[in-house]
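User: Quick sanity check before I run a bigger batch. Here is a single chain. Can you write out its predicted 3D structure?
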Amino acid sequence: MAGVRIQTVADDLDGQRVDNYLLRELKGVPRTRIYRLLRRGEVRVNGGRVRPTHRLKSGDQVRIPPVRHAESDSMQPSDQVIERLEKAILYEDDRLIIIDKPSGLAVHGGSGIAYGLVEALRVMRPRAAFLDLAHRLDRDTSGCLLVAKRRSMLRALHEAFRNNNVDKRYVALVHGRVKRTAMTVTARLAAETGKGGERFVRVREQGQSAKTDFLVRQQFAGQTLLEARLHTGRMHQIRVHAAHIGHPVVMDPRYGDGAADQAVRALGLKRLFLHAESLALELPDYGRIEASAGLPEALESLLDRLATEQD
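Assistant: Done. Predicted structure follows.
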């Protein structure tokens, strides 16, 4: 257990949230433990208490208390996970990483989750002074994800997403035969919290605006393969919009059809059939960013089986 440290915030970390800063400085320590340190005032910025969302400034003095790392020895990603993620990197330079996130891996560690993609990347790239998500994917969704390696890149990417200048395409298998070749869903969405603290989304008139384009790619006997294009980035947007039109995403434990899922489960599918297939955008001081990730083997295998059954 190390002693108290006073860290000076570097110029390239100006604007970073203090909780994310601590997650990097205290590698392997769970996010819940980081929040507890902040809540108790054990972490100080320029001598004062701060909230987890506090944005640091270049030159700030951060007091980091001694933390017993023994409790987090098992929180590190295994060599197998690291190897898998190295192979999943689609592109990397000194400003960003584009990775094909595996299904089942959360983007961040948290309550009940030892580590997430960002924590694993910080282990993989220990010399990177800054690593942060430009956007998010659900834990069970696979596919293209942008991670910024500089604060300036993160700001540029956030602005591009905010202004709807990112072309994001997903592939989803849904239950039922979708009759219309193309449709746009604009049902407003509201995030709610259940009794157990679990977050979920409902269609509500007072919710936030949301827009998803659906295009039919392939029809099967009891399912439809859709391409989904997002115009907004609401939590669980594709999953909720698909369920709203009566065609829930296959193997969706929260918004799906458990009875209908039994048929695809019998064919070997064990995960949500939702994949971020591609993204494209243009940044003024960087150029064009394009990435695509083919369907994982588990999803391709299911499509092959469904096509065979249909023939």
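The chain has two domains: 1-75, 165-310.

User: Great, the batch can go ahead then.
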